[in-house]
C-alpha cells in the first residue's frame, strides 16, 4: 500500500520537528522520562520562550505531550518510537567515527612501514 500525501506530510512534519539540535536534545532527554519545562530550559541553555517554542513544534508534530501540575508544565514523549530511531542514528554515526578512526590508524601504520 502506497502512502498518500497526508501520511507523507505527517511524516515530514515529524522529521522537520526533529531538525533542530535543541529539539533533538530535548527529545533525547525526554526518552529517559518526563521533564518539566524548567529542566529542559537548563538542559538547552536557552530562555524559557525559546524552549517553549521548540516544545510547541514538537507537540504540534505529535512527538511530545504535556501535563500541568500546579504551576509547572511537564513534558513526556508521546511518540515513544522516536527514542529508538534516535538511538539508531547515534549508533550509525558512532560506527562511522570508529570506522574512520580504524582507517586512519591503518594509514598511519602503513606510512611507518
Automatic annotation (TrEMBL):
This is Transcriptional regulator, ArsR family. GO terms for molecular function: DNA binding; DNA-binding transcription factor activity. Keywords: DNA-binding, Transcription, Transcription regulation. InterPro entries: ArsR-like_HTH, HTH_ArsR_DNA-bd_dom, HTH_MetalResp_TranReg, WH-like_DNA-bd_sf, WH_DNA-bd_sf. Coiled coil: none annotated. Residues 3-97 form the HTH arsR-type domain. Pfam families: HTH_5 (PF01022). The keyword Lipoprotein does not apply. It comes from Solidesulfovibrio fructosivorans JJ].
